[in-house]
Amino acid sequence: MTAAKSAQPPPPSSSSPINLSLRGSLLALATLTLISFTYLSLNSLHSPLQSSSSTPPPTLLSSKVLEESDLEQLSDVYHSPEVFSLNYAEMERRFKVYIYPDGDPNTFYQTPRKLTGKYASEGYFFQNIRESGFRTEDPDRADLFFIPISCHKMRGKGTSYENMTVIVQNYVESLISKYPYWNRTLGADHFFVTCHDVGVRATEGLPLLVKNSIRVVCSPSYDVGFIPHKDVALPQVLQPFALPAGGNDVENRTTLGFWAGHRNSKIRVILARVWENDTELDIANNRINRATGHLVYQKKFYRTKFCICPGGSQVNSARITDSIHYGCIPVILSNYYDLPFNDILDWRKFSVILKENDVYRLKQILKDISDLEFVALHENLVKVQKHFQWNSPPVKYDAFHLVMYDLWLRHHVIKY
């Protein structure tokens, strides 16, 4: 027995070649793992839009995000191009809207054959939402619910404000009683669209609609009860445009500033009184009559550096979008105005925003903007032109898609 025990090989010591080899292999493997992990971590920090795996992350599947070159090009006009890119891709992939059935076809919206006029944004949205991939026929899949009322059409039929309010109230109350979706959130996940002042006035008679639901309106001034964190500013666009978009034409812009319009607000009266006789500012206290020549008004946008956009008594954002389209830097002259896509775009990178009291120093403020600053503003303005144009069918990043993006952002904060 003793001889048998002594014949067995001794247990390997911690310094045996086998142990050393095993420990060396494990150490090398751990080192490689650490190096790989560090590399991937650093790579992900420097490339936030690219996954370290060959398979795209779930939030980017079936979606195209802005390329790095696009992000660099657009970084001057977005508050955060990376965040916008990722959220936009997720919106395209996931966002769904249920459209309630229309009411009386003689009262509610029917898409016209021609989408023209200063209230055409309303018509474009109604048409775009129906032809887009955001629409769902299954209300259980919907993130938001669209109430298709058109006070503009009712007004065109001669309906009084009082009757419009009654019609809207009856329709909304019928939806509340027929469907369970309003009561789940008290209407916080519902929205309606109007680009006419009568729409704002008609719906004001229904407090539960105004206070609870999201209003997408072309009158985003605070005096109509606009709530920035809840409501959405709809860009008022006059399409089709009379002339092509302006761009890369700064050398042709020899007039310092331009405005022509009705004096239907205090700030417009002051603007005309102070500057209508100035030789460097082209200020007219009435609209330019067509009799003065073909497209005279639009051509003035081409020759001007800064187009004055004073607040008016009614919907007036069409002047802003005209300025953007024709390449004339918009000068927002208003104390309270929520600009379209304000939470997406940095308006100070392509416009001049002034308080109404600045009207007395308007000329000097504009002259103090250097040539380099003006060129930068103009270049950025050209970048955002596509965001202020409607298309049918809708096109990626156009006005419809940015309105939907604004709605997408707001649906995330609905908590009940």
Automatic annotation (TrEMBL):
Domain Exostosin GT47: 92-368
Signal sequence residues: none
Subcellular location: Golgi apparatus membrane
Keyword set, alphabetical order: Glycosyltransferase, Golgi apparatus, Signal-anchor, Transferase, Transmembrane
The keyword DNA damage is annotated on this UniProt entry: no
Primary localization: Golgi
GO molecular function, one term: glycosyltransferase activity
Domain of life assignment: Eukaryota
Mode of membrane association: Single-pass type II membrane protein
GO cellular component: Golgi membrane
Record has ATP-binding as a keyword: no
Similarity field: Belongs to the glycosyltransferase 47 family.
Protein name: Exostosin GT47 domain-containing protein
Lineage per the UniProt record: Eukaryota, Viridiplantae, Streptophyta, Embryophyta, Tracheophyta
